[in-house]
Amino acid sequence: LAQPLRWHPRYMTSAALICAAAASFLVGGGPRAPAALPRASRIIAAIDYKDPAVAAEFQKVQERPIELVEAEIEKSGVPVPPSLNEMDMRLMLVELRMRKAGTMPGGGKAAPKKPASYGSKYEEALWEKPAFKRLIDDYRARGNTNALNLATEYLNSPRQAADRYAGTGAYDETVAAIDAAMSAKVEQQVTSGRVAFGGFPAAMGEAAIRMTLEGFGPLASLSVDVSDDGLSCRGAAEFETVEAAKACIDKYDGVDMGLGTTLEFKAL
Q1: Which residues contact residue 245 at a Cβ distance below 8 angstroms, ignoring those fewer than 6 apart?
Q2: Helix (H), strand (E) at residue 124
Q3: pTM for the whole thing?
Q4: DSSP character string of 133-197
Q5: What pLDDT score does 46 carry?
Q6: Which residue of 58, 174, 198, 215 has the lowest C-beta tally within 10 Å?
Q7: Alpha-carbon distance 198 to 237, whole Å?
Q8: How does pLDDT run across 6-15, given as a tens digit for each residue?
C-alpha cells in the first residue's frame, strides 16, 4: 500500500424502513454504538433494497426481535461488530439470507471456478473458509475498504499488517472478526462414505489408523502414505455408510495433534 490508511468504524447510519408499494427506504434514528463514533452520511448497498424480493425478505427480518437477528448472523459465522446499529444489522441479515439461498438480485451469473492452486493465503481462505468469504462479502457490500485491505494483508503477512495498522480499536475489532471467521467450523456436505485425510503422526502406521477409523464403522477400503516430510500420514478411506464418514469428519477434522499438526478430513 502506498500509505497507511485512516480507519473508520462501521459507517452506515441508522435507518427506518417504510414498506410501501415502492418499498422505499428512509434513513434516520440513533446509532446502536456510542455516539462519539463518527459515521458516514449515506448508505452504500450491494443490492437494490427497492427490489420486491429484497423488500419481502426485509419484512420477514423486521418481524424478528433484534436479539434473534444478531444470533442468526453470528450462527452463520459472521461476527457482529459492536458498532453496528440495529437497522444495519437487519440489512446484513437480509443479504446473508439471500446470498445463502441464491436469491440475490443479479445472482444469475455463472459461479466462478475454483482454481487448481492458490496464489496467496487470502485467496485460499476465500475458497476454503465459507465464514471468511461471507465476512469479506459483507465488507465489500458496505464499502469497508479499510477492512478489506487489512484482511488481505493480515492473512498474507500478519506481521506487516500489525506494523502498519495495529494500535487502533478498528484494527482490534477487524482482526477479531477475521480470526473468528477463519476458525469457524466448516460444515462439509457428506454424500458418500469416501474421505481423504492427513495429519496423523507417521508413527501410528496403517494398522493404528485403521483401528481409529473403524471406531466409526466398518471400512470398505483404506490407503495410507507417509508424507514427504516423513512426519505425518495421509491417505483415503471408504466407510460402508455415509453416516460413519460424517461422524468421523465431524469428530476429527481440525483436531490439533500438537507440534503444529492438525488433522484434516475432507468428504469425497
Answers
A1: 190, 192, 193, 194, 195, 216, 239, 267
A2: helix 121-128
A3: 0.45
A4: HHHHHHHHHTT-HHHHHHHHHHHH-HHHHHHHH-SSHHHHHHHHHHHHHHHSPP-----SSEEEE
A5: 53
A6: 215
A7: 11
A8: 444 333 333 3
With bands split at pLDDT 50, 70 and 90, how would you rate the model's confidence at 143?
A: confident
What sign does the CA torsion over 204, 208, 210, 213 have? negative
User: Residues 179-233: pLDDT tens digits?
Assistant: 999 988 778 889 999 999 999 998 899 999 999 999 999 999 999 999 887 888 9
For cell 448472523, name the residue: 73
Any idea how long the chain is? 268
Please give the grid coordinates belonging to residue 2. Answer: 502506498
Give the model's pLDDT for residue 47.
59
Structural element, H or E, at residue 220: strand 219-226
Cβ within 8 Å of residue 63, ≥6 positions away = none
CB 197 within 8 A of CB 263: yes
Which residues have a Cβ under 8 Å from the Cβ of 222 and sit 6 or more positions away?
A: 206, 209, 210, 213, 235, 236, 237, 238
* CB environment 149-187: b (16+ within 10 A), e (fewer): bbbbbbbeeeeebeebbeeeebbebbbebbebbbebeee
Task: Find out whether 30 and 59 touch, Cβ atoms under 8 Å.
Answer: no
Tell me which of 42 and 198 has the higher pLDDT: 198
